[in-house]
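User: I'll paste a sequence; please echo it back and then give the predicted structure.

Assistant: Echoing your sequence first, then the prediction.
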Amino acid sequence: MSESMNESPSESTAPLIAVVEDEEHLAQGLLFNLQAEGYVTHHESDGDAALDYLLHTQDNIAAIVLDCMLPGTDGFDIVRAMRQAGRFTPVLMLTARTRPEDILEGIEAGADDYLPKPFDLSILLVRLKSLLRRAAWQNEVKPPEAPPDEYIFDHRSIRFDLLELVAPNRTTHLTLMEADLLRYLTDREGQIVPRKDILEQVWQVHEDTDTRAIDNFIVRLRRYIEDDPSNPQHLLTVRGIGYRFVANP
């Protein structure tokens, strides 16, 4: 099932928020409150239909509120498919409070932020506005005198303001989660960063959980940064502890 609320996206200048949620009472509550905040909304309750809409719509979607567990294609695969297709619309993923591994899988898949269920509506609205604000900052034309927010190392540049990693012959778009982790590591260049710090300080995951999702996440970042990801020179594993970023090996 799908439905668009308020004006059609082509008729309104308000941001369009796509809500992908199969729990009807929760979806209707979200749609009502988002509209009350002035947003235009589109709702999908089935994963397969949502994926088709998100990959092929001509609507200018500002952000997506996406449940991880859906009938048909789940939220994780939806995010992966969007990123692989070059669609980088900000995604706020809704996860089950009792499943911290959902949070890590959502991060690894390419979500920009997450919110455990059950959640406070005011927190969701703040998180959503933060995503929209970050996206607006990226699209702003900065005055010539404004220095770029970037980290330069070994013929590479991480453009935090543009969410881009520029390497020789390649530019990679970063999610907010990827950029946040790279900033955390580069701020501590040369230091050992424990996995526990990444969970708690970067992703705010405090529960004991399987850290393999972090390892998978690092593997993806190495594909962006390293000349030979199988023999990393910048993102190094410290066995049994965590990782260390080296700018100039």
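The radius of gyration is 19 Å. The domain at 2-139 is CATH 3.40.50.2300 (Rossmann fold).
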